[in-house]
Every structure is written in structure tokens, then in C-alpha cells.
Specification:
This protein is α+β, with helices and mostly antiparallel strands. Helix content is 37%, strand content 19%. The strands form 3 sheets. The protein has a 5-stranded antiparallel β-sheet. It has a two-stranded antiparallel sheet with strand order 1-2.
Length: 268
């Protein structure tokens, strides 16, 4: 199945997999590979490497500053040339900017706490998204339409985890598997309901420069063929704000295999 995206002109553009994006910031960058997971870097290492890099800028600029001043005064005079003075001012500005960036970085213990909180919240979101699987027979029976009343409870429980600007679509089912409609008939769904997939929250390892944490969820099949690795059917990304303790910039999509097996969902 092809993915449909809405371009800047408003026209639909076809591409190999389905992706939907719910962005709270107009400057947010799209993810280049939906199902891919970025390389993991330990939080402390990421933070310390940034501090080390910023510290290196400070020390390098300070060293050059000393050299420039020394060279400017090497003739024994007490004044420096206009070009030297401008260079000194530029170097001092570099040092001030680098020091400001260093001060803005979160402390290692705060970063560790934020990573744990982001992971905990991501797990709760995965569980709530998994709750939507029980609605698959109802959605299929109504031609793909998900009634608002049926998803109200789960939607209400998801709401506190997201920034208010995210919008309603991010709170709806990210993915439903068409084969999950084959559930035994009866009053309600049996406790033994065995879905063909589940959402799993991936562990975040690092912070972005803006103190947000990129979190990834994967929808993986639960009954792979013997000796086969479970197939990823769908994915989701979001940025966790360690200050507001909410997720924003939600982006979801399906793999080629997942799109072919997806239950269409039209919300009212």
C-alpha cells in the first residue's frame, strides 16, 4: 500500500509507506526514516560530550585571545590595533556564548531523572494504545468508523501525556490490525483476547540540544512464524519535554507490511 502525505501545496503525494504527523511547532524537522531507530548514546556520555565540546570552545577561544593580545602588545606598547581589538571582541563574544550554552545544559542527575520519566510515560502510552486493539471488531463492523464514544475513555487517559497543542488525531489509535477483528462472538471481548501485534516503547538514551528527549514506539507482531523475527508493522515518534513533562511533535506511520495488514480507522 502507498503512503499518502499532504504536501505544502495541499496536493496528495504518494510514497511507499504511510506516515502521519501531528506537529506542535512549525519549525520541527520531519524524521527521515520512519521505522528507523537512532543510535543509542548513554545520557551521561551525551551530556558530558557536549560539556566537553563547549569547554573546548571556551579554552580554545581563551588561548587564541591570549595569543592575540600577546602578539598585539609584543612591540612593547600599551595599545593594540583596530583589527586586533575587533578580533579580541569577537573571541570574547565566542567565550560568552559558549559559557551561556554550558549553563543551559541540564545537570547529569536531572537528565537521568528525565530519561526515566520519559520512559515511564512512554510505557503508559504504549499500554493505552494497546487498549485500542479491543475496538478492532467494532471498527471493522462499522466499515472502519471509530465512534467517539467507544474511544472516549482511552482518549481521556492519553490526554495528560501530550501537549495541548498536539491535537485530537495523536490521541486516536495509531494502528489497528485488520486480523484482530476475528475475535470470538459474545458480549464484549474475552479476557483471553490475543492480538496479532502490540505497541512497545523503546528506551530513550540521550537528550536533544533543546533538552527534549526523542522517544520511539514500535508496533510489532506477536505471533511470528517459527524462527522469524517479529515484523515491525507501525511506528511512532514524539519529543518529551523534560520541563513540561509532556510529549509533542508526534509522528506516526506504518511499514510496507503493516500498511497491507492495517485496519482502516475513520474517526467521527
Amino acid at each position: 500500500m502507498a503512503k499518502t502525505e499532504i504536501g505544502k501545496s495541499g496536493e496528495q503525494v504518494e510514497s511507499p509507506a504511510r506516515r502521519t504527523r501531528f506537529v506542535t511547532s512549525p519549525t520541527a524537522e520531519p524524521t527521515s526514516n520512519g521505522a528507523g531507530v537512532a543510535e543509542h548514546v548513554e545520557a551521561d556520555g551525551a551530556l558530558m560530550s557536549r560539556r566537553a565540546a563547549i569547554g573546548g570552545v571556551c579554552m580554545g577561544a581563551a588561548a587564541v585571545l591570549c595569543f592575540v593580545l600577546g602578539a598585539g602588545l609584543s612591540g612593547g606598547g600599551s595599545a593594540v590595533s583596530g583589527s586586533t581589538a575587533r578580533e579580541v571582541m569577537e573571541l570574547r563574544d565566542q567565550i560568552r556564548v559558549a559559557e551561556t550554552k554550558a549553563d543551559a545544559l541540564p545537570k547529569a542527575e536531572d537528565a537521568d531523572r528525565a530519561l526515566v520519566t520519559a520512559q515511564s510515560s512512554a510505557v503508559q502510552i504504549a499500554q493505552l494504545q494497546n487498549d485500542y486493539r479491543h475496538l478492532t471488531p467494532l471498527v471493522a463492523a462499522k466499515g472502519g468508523t471509530l465512534e467517539a464514544s467507544a474511544s472516549e475513555s482511552t482518549r481521556r487517559n492519553l490526554t495528560p501525556y501530550f501537549s495541548p497543542e498536539v491535537g485530537q488525531p495523536a490521541l486516536e489509535p495509531w494502528y489497528l490490525l485488520a486480523s484482530d477483528k476475528e475475535v470470538p462472538a459474545g458480549n464484549g471481548l474475552p479476557m483471553s483476547f490475543d492480538s496479532g501485534f502490540k505497541w512497545v516503547a523503546q528506551r530513550p538514551y540521550s537528550l536533544n540540544e533543546d533538552s527534549t528527549i526523542r522517544v520511539t514506539w514500535l508496533a510489532v507482531e506477536t505471533r511470528p512464524a517459527a524462527g522469524r523475527t517479529p515484523t515491525v508493522l507501525a511506528w511512532a515518534h514524539a519529543d518529551y519535554d523534560m520541563t513540561r513533562k509532556t510529549f509533542s511533535n508526534v509522528e506516526t506511520g506504518t511499514t510496507t507490511t503493516g500498511e497491507a495488514l492495517r485496519q482502516e480507522v475513520k474517526t467521527q
